[in-house]
Amino acid sequence: MAESTRESTKIIKVGMAEYKISSNPGRLCCYGLGSCVAIALYDREAKIGGLAHVMLPTSKYARKTMRHKPAKFADLAVVTLIDKMEKRGVKRNRVVAKIFGGANMFSTNGPGESILDIGKRNVAAVKEKLKEERIRLVAEDTGGSYGRSIEFHIDTGKVIVRTKVNKNREF
If we measure between CA atoms, which residue out of 38, 56, 50 comes closest to residue 150? Predict the structure, then answer.
């Protein structure tokens, strides 16, 4: 009996401060995104996608020993992911981006809120870096105060977002 397409699709988990690249068929998945941001980059023609699980907006203040994990920081993750994808045959001018996460998981009242809202800062940093790198942002599901899990389907470029708050959505 032949396996269904869904069962034979390779599932690759992308943990915090990690990035992975896959070609068709495959699914790149991030589970339990809170304030972190998942950056999905895709070249439809090459059918190659990359996913980074970003924790912090900038590497500027990080110790040099922490810079060996470029996916941890928005400023390094975007550049690293594009570079690694280009080495696999992706053309930068065909790459589009989708971003997810960036929730405010730590509710506060008062003036410290903007400092503690790492999710909002992560989203802003990712968008800024995508703009600098001339990568078009075509979809996003960010903000709020709830977690998300995503599945990035490399064969179609679609991303399924699962939350406890909303039904599954496709981007």
Answer: 38
